[in-house]
Design goal:
This protein is an all-alpha fold and about 775 residues long. About 70% of the residues lie in helices and about 0% in strands.
Amino acid sequence: MLGVMSGVYKVLSVPPQSWMTETSALMLPLVKSWMVEFSSILKNPVQSEDPDDWSIRMEALKCLSQFVQNFPNLAESQFMGLEDAYEGRYDSDGSETSLESFIIQLFEFLLTIVGSKKFVKAFGNSVQDLVYYSIAFMQMTEQQVHAWSTDANQYVADEDENTYSCRVSGSLLLEEIVISCGIDGVYAILNAAKKRLDESQQERGKGSAVWWRMREATLYALSSVSEQLLEVEVPGPSEVTLGNLLEQTLTEDMAAGVHEFPFLYARMFSSVAKFSSVINPGVIDHFLYAAIQAIGMDVPAPVKVGACRALSQLLPDTNRGIPQPHILALFSSLTELLKQASDETMHLVLETLQAAVRAGHEAALSIEPVISPIILNMWALHVSDPFISIDALDVLEAIKDAPGCVHPLVSRVLPYVGPILNKNAPIDVVKAVYEVCFDPVVRIVLQSDDHGEMQNATQCLAALVSGGNQQLLTWNGDSGFTMRCLLDVASRLLDPDLDSSGSLFVGNYILQLILHLSSQMAPHIRDLVAALVRRMQSCQIAGLRSSLLLIFARLVHMSSPHVEQFINLLITIPADGYPNSLHYVMSEWTKQQGKGNSRGLPDQSHNHSFGFTIINQTWITTRSKAKVSPDQWTLMPLPAKILAILADVLLEIQEQVLDDNQDSDWEEVEAGDPEIEQELLYSSGTTSYSRPSNGYLDALAKAFNEDEDDGYDDDLLSAADPLNEINLANYLTNFLREFSQGDPPLFDHLCQSLTQAQKKAVQMLLLSL
């Protein structure tokens, strides 16, 4: 029989539009006999211990569903006379999970019937009975009680996501009853619910251990159609009203033990929130304060889940101010609960915390120092999770809107924003940060005198520009205004009268502007260069001066292949104490030993710079003596100093390769073994034409990052900085080869200014070519 039913189901599942006439003619003489067979299969009580019995019943229900959907006219005459196969026996406490698939199929079949205008009348006056029996199958099973008691995340997920279960299928059926039957469906649900609640109260009086399950299922059933029940207006007086029914139930169950019946308490909390518009305010207040207390008590996790659901919905709607001690206690409890939450429960707690902040504005300022760091840390840890990160941002926005909280919050947020956005944050996260932070962060830079705040704000804006790129200009609808804000920030940070500490991170900020908003920055390059020079000349921090020098390096490379235009621009911009900005920049640049390279420079033979330190051999230099007698330097032509710097870089690369890969051979080289020397020359020179060795990379990393303790700025630079694409070893090789071959007299003349170690490094490279 099972095989026959499966075959029938497959045939009937084909869409009938293309062969309706032929199929109807074929089916007509068979309908009556099939209906008799289906009725005989379904009329007897379900044998819970016989799996074959469930299977054949499921196939029969599937076939009947197809009849109702595809052949309503043929089935109508036979269907009205069928017996009710669902009256009678069922598992009243819902503990038999092995029947779940059969029950779900049964609900789907009933849903199909109720949704059909032709077949819904088959129930006649039995709709209330249908609801009554459906509620019984919506009880929690033993398996669900165990799973949800041990895993709060699963409980929250199953409640929120409407997973495939008897409870969800039953709620869909009740929803269809209200839609199809209107006010009669509402009466049926209310009367059936009252009957179930009364029976469960009687079972409670008799000492039943599972009385609460039917009560919880009834409240769940009502809550699942809360929107429909509240929307349908019941005309005239009624024996059962929704508000009275709920108030009576909630009042009766208030005394139930929270530890003994945690799921009933959880359902009461969520039911109060869903039906708050029809429940007495006194009852709502009782459960509101009970939920606040439950969050901080040692109660089962389902109770806390229900309390969070109630608070997240009741707090935004309450018109009565909550006493400050209660709201402070709630803040404290929620922050502790947040530390224990994960996944689904974290989302729920964050949602509740947001509602609490908005409801307790006056108290938010006192608790902000506790809440904000926790939320910020959570945001940082879950930035790649759009759900958790957006929930955290919603809480931060609620804190921002609370009186007096915006300034301390923004100050606290800024150190987190850069690292967050630097973790490959999705563009929607970057935009969310922009919408919350951009305006107040700009105001901090423009108005604050606190150096720490200005530094954090500068890093935040740099990260926003890096993460938002060109899209950032369009997010507020006025790209011109956004660009003016960014330029105003640059102007304030480059103000020569501003303390150097406040401008400490302006170099990275300017870099992000010229890398990601290059077309918008192009008209302002001259003003930018002039401001950079003024800021360099007035700053007192070497690190700031170095970072601004790097901006010139980026501008040089961005102007390629027309570097001479940028050089000429520098020549036209004055600099205090120097003929022009080019002389000043090159003078400062040559002091940064090994921190740069040269390209496309005009004749600077008459421009002198610091050469080598004159070492005093007469005493040990102490800090006090250094103040009295600072270091003395030789002077040398700028071209010679540039060649010396390049030779130092080459020497460092060669030494690093030797240290890492040729420790034993190095001693032989020092002893003068020409064969080994030539081999090492080759490793440090010619291999760079194709692909630099790991030794080169390690050496360069050490040479250029040895003073960088914070990897955050490096990460931002590596994301888009074209300088990172330059192979320095290849560049040095090509430059020295072209220079030595293109102008041998000048090359030889400049080499006379090199130290012996520098000369040897250059000679080793040239001999290997």
